[in-house]
């Protein structure tokens, strides 16, 4: 399915097993003038987000999201380990220690559901490699709010279960390799 590129104000990216490699490949391809904020949920177990494990594109700040922090352009925010990351209607973050979802905290589903309610049709959701089904319901929720949904091509993913489950439930608008996503994201800049 191909659709026009809407006015995107935020991008959600979720990954699990194989996610560090996939995210770095995506980040390395972002153009220097990329301004759209990214909200990332990565299953890392009990480990904290390690900024130097990720490539920071020129002019973009990578950081863990903080409680009540406003979502700003030119930032890539990571959900802190062992917290659910929620997006509020005023486009700030809140953190929760509620029970795990799909055996995970942070949960892709929770972040995507709250981001979809806040951003509605101006949210782009991406589900990358992973070995579980977290993210399937969240991507479906983004579609319900008329947002845009992308899944990594399972043949391109180190672990195909998660993007396949998300595609099956949400009927994603696009199925792409990381390389194809990079080109697509670069093209979104003109919509700001």
Automatic annotation (TrEMBL):
GO terms for molecular function: phosphorelay response regulator activity; protein-glutamate methylesterase activity. It catalyses: [protein]-L-glutamate 5-O-methyl ester + H2O = L-glutamyl-[protein] + methanol + H(+). CDD domains: CheB. Keywords: Hydrolase. Its EC number is 3.1.1.61. It comes from the Bacteria. SUPFAM superfamilies: Methylesterase CheB, C-terminal domain. GO terms for biological process: chemotaxis. It is an enzyme of class 3 (hydrolase). This is protein-glutamate methylesterase.
């Amino acid at each position: 399915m191909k659709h026009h590129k809407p006015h995107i104000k935020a991008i959600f990216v979720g990954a699990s097993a194989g996610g560090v490699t996939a995210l770095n490949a995506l980040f390395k391809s972002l153009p220097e003038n990329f301004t759209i904020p990214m909200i990332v949920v990565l299953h890392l177990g009990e480990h904290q987000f390690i900024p130097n494990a990720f490539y920071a594109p020129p002019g973009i700040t990578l950081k863990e999201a903080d409680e009540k922090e406003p979502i700003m352009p030119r930032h890539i925010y990571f959900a802190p380990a062992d917290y659910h990351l929620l997006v509020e209607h005023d486009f700030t973050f809140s953190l929760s220690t509620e029970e795990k979802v799909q055996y995970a905290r942070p949960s892709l589903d929770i972040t995507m559901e709250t981001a979809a309610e806040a951003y509605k049709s101006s949210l782009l959701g991406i589900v990358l490699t992973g070995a579980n089904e977290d993210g399937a319901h969240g991507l479906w929720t983004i579609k319900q709010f008329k947002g845009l949904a992308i899944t990594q091509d399972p043949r391109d993913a180190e672990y195909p279960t998660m993007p396949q489950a998300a595609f099956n439930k949400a009927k994603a608008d696009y199925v792409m390799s990381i390389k194809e996503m990079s080109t697509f994201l670069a093209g979104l800049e003109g919509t700001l």
